[in-house]
């Protein structure tokens, strides 16, 4: 199973470098988009909402970011009307239960992964998203 | 139809009224049976005036009253204590009248009534009242009698001390005048409920103004004193000073916020660095390509450096909470600002910024010098860093002193910040907003913590594209 387009939104450049390297090794997706904060991601996604073929099918979203953080990104993102199933995973260092509780409040958010991300985490994501695309 | 005499003889025992008469010419004595009962004479028959006088605790006093009646012919009355023939103590009311013929008294007469019960009731009542006022005057909490309109009728020593007024000054004011406007409505509503007898008492936390204008937090408990019909006569207010408690609660709340903030930093920032180190070291182990391995090791070292920085910042946060308040000293504000402008002069010149100062050169404030410097450096360098590229930077620094506080405003015409979007996290640790790579997200966090550690407040106003104003407020104490 290999996804078409995956997207990482995270300001930690070391982390995004490491994660994209892991994803490449696993052949996670054909294309990988990386944005360093919520605003940059929104700016990219907004003009292409009508073109599902170039929208990502999975977004790995960090919470603590400058400019627009993960929550603010979600609040905008959930207003979009999109003709494609996009699975959002939160990938954050936060072990604060309040953050986990808050994430459960978004039906668009599928799971909360706490950093560091392992190979197994990525395989779980692949399995879940693959399951959804088959059904 | 009874004759008048008969009616008298019938009614007097009903009223328990003793009736007596002495004819001073003939020596004849008349008295009804009630006199005998009051005096508890064994056979109830009349005894001589001298013998009667001896029953009184103070015979001289009774004699003076009788003499006065006999001399003037005017009716006299007295309340007195006597010991009956059987040895019981009683309070009686004696009325005496006299008939004068040619300036000479021929007859004296009058009534005698046992008022022991009334007197003891009165004593109990007076005793209770005395005890109440004893407690009232010496109560360690403020107490007052307040009219239904809100005028202070009587105030005890503790209340006067709490409010800073003498009792006379206080009685010229209403509680409404001394109540913080935000708390007045709630007080008045409950007072009306009390007057309407829907409440027996009410209790609330509220703010009063001290004579010198500062706010006092108090726990107020009000009950109403009512007449027989339940109509309220006046209020009894008990006012306990809880200013200290309120302040402590506020401090604890702030400390909890800081602790929570601290937990967040530990949860997020320390974990993100260590998470990266874990991932990096795993990948270093697995990596075959020596060049790639080299690159990963470089990142590992960089990450370890970031971890150290974060630990250093955490230490700075802890230090603020420890020593902030105690290390304050009188500082000349203008001189301190001038010094900071010198420190920043290179970047001010480079940015071609124009800075105006409106600060009284004699103004002194009680502040922690290291904090003041850090606050000024952070705010002014923020103005420089986030200036608008379209126009030359203008920064105005102005201090304004009122009787109770000094306000310092730092206003710039820079790029501003969208407070609707970022307002809540503006002063948070590791929050950056402009996407600049050099922003650490520590400056405003430190500013807020340092200002609050010195018991001050910091506010921000900003319009994106127009500029930002930071306002610092320090109360004098």
TrEMBL record, chain A:
One of the protein's GO biological processes: phosphorelay signal transduction system
Residue stretches making up the Response regulatory domain: 5-130
Superkingdom of source: Bacteria
Entry-annotated residues carrying 4-aspartylphosphate: 62
Keywords per UniProt: Phosphoprotein
InterPro entries: CheY-like_superfamily, Sig_transdc_resp-reg_receiver, TCS_response_regulator
Residue ranges of coiled coil: none
Pfam families on file: Response_reg
Classification via PANTHER family: RESPONSE REGULATOR RCP1, RESPONSE REGULATOR RCP1-RELATED
Name the record gives this protein: Response regulator
UniProtKB/TrEMBL annotation, chain B:
SUPFAM superfamilies: ATPase domain of HSP90 chaperone/DNA topoisomerase II/histidine kinase, PYP-like sensor domain (PAS domain)
Catalytic activity, as annotated: ATP + protein L-histidine = ADP + protein N-phospho-L-histidine
InterPro entries (UniProt xref): HATPase_C_sf, HATPase_dom, His_kinase_dom, PAC, PAS, PAS-assoc_C, PAS-like_dom_sf, PAS_fold_3
Domain PAC: 202-254
EC number(s) on file: 2.7.13.3
Entry-linked CDD domains: PAS (cd00130)
Major enzyme class: transferase
Keyword Kinase: yes
PROSITE patterns tied to this protein: HIS_KIN, PAC, PAS
Domain PAS: 128-198
Example of a GO MF term: protein histidine kinase activity
Positions of transmembrane segments: none
Stretches assigned to the Histidine kinase domain: 265-477
Record key words, sorted: Kinase, Phosphoprotein, Transferase
NCBIfam families tied to this protein: sensory_box
UniProt-recorded name of the protein: histidine kinase
The organism's taxonomic lineage, starting at the top: Bacteria, Pseudomonadati, Bacteroidota, Sphingobacteriia, Sphingobacteriales
């Amino acid at each position: 199973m290999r996804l078409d387009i995956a997207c990482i939104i995270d300001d930690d450049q070391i982390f995004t470098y490491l994660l994209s390297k892991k994803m490449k090794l696993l052949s996670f997706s054909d294309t990988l988009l990386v944005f360093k904060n919520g605003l940059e991601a929104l700016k990219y996604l907004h003009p292409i909402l009508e073109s599902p073929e170039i929208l990502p099918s999975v977004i790995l979203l960090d919470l603590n970011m400058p400019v627009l953080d993960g929550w603010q990104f979600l609040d905008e993102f959930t207003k979009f009307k999109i003709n494609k199933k996009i699975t959002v995973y939160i990938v954050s260092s936060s072990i604060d239960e309040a953050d986990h509780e808050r994430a459960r409040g978004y039906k668009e958010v599928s799971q909360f992964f706490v950093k560091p991300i392992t190979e197994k985490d990525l395989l779980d994501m692949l399995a879940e998203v693959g399951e959804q695309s088959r059904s | 139809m009874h004759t008048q005499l008969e009616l008298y003889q019938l009614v007097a025992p009903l009223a328990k009224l003793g009736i007596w008469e002495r004819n001073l010419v003939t020596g004849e004595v008349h008295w009804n049976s009630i006199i005998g009962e009051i005096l508890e004479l064994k056979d109830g028959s009349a005894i001589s005036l001298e013998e009667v006088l001896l029953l009184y605790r103070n015979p001289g006093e009774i004699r003076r009253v009788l003499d006065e009646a006999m001399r003037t012919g005017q009716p006299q009355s007295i309340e007195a204590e006597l010991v009956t023939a059987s040895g019981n103590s009683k309070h009686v009311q004696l009325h005496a009248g006299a008939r004068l013929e040619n300036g000479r008294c021929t007859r004296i007469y009058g009534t005698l009534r046992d008022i022991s019960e009334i007197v003891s009731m009165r004593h109990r009542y007076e005793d209770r009242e005395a005890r109440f006022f004893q407690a009232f005057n010496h109560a360690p909490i403020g107490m007052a009698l307040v009219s239904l309109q809100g005028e202070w009728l009587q105030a005890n020593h503790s209340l006067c001390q709490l409010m800073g007024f003498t009792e006379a000054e206080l009685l010229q004011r209403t509680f409404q005048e001394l109540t913080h406007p935000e708390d007045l409505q709630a007080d008045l509503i409950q007072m009306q409920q009390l007057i309407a007898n829907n409440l027996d008492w009410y209790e609330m936390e509220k703010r009063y103004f001290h004579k010198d204008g500062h706010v006092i937090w108090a726990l107020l408990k009000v009950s109403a004193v009512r007449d027989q019909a339940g109509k309220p006569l006046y209020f009894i207010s008990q006012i306990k000073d809880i200013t200290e408690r309120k302040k402590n609660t506020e401090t604890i709340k702030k400390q909890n916020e800081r602790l929570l903030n601290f937990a967040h930093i530990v949860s997020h920032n320390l974990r993100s660095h260590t998470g990266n180190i874990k991932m990096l070291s795993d990948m270093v182990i697995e990596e075959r390509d020596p060049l790639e391995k080299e690159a990963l090791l470089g990142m590992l070292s960089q990450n370890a450096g970031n971890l150290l920085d974060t630990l250093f910042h955490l230490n700075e946060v802890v230090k603020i909470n420890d020593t902030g308040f105690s290390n304050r000293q009188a500082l000349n504000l203008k001189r301190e600002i001038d010094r900071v402008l010198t420190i920043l002069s290179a970047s001010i010149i480079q940015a071609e910024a124009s800075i105006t100062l409106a600060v009284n050169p004699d103004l002194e404030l009680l502040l922690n010098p290291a904090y003041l410097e850090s606050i000024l450096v952070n705010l002014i360098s923020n103005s420089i860093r986030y200036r608008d590229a379209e126009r030359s930077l203008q920064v105005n620094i102005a201090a304004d002193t009122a009787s109770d506080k000094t306000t310092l405003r730092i206003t710039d015409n820079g790029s501003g910040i969208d407070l609707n979007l970022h307002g809540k996290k503006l002063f948070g640790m590791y929050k950056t907003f402009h996407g600049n790579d050099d922003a650490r997200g520590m400056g405003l966090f430190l500013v807020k913590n340092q200002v609050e550690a010195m018991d001050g407040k910091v506010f921000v106003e900003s319009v994106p594209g127009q500029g930002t104003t930071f306002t610092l407020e320090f109360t004098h104490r």
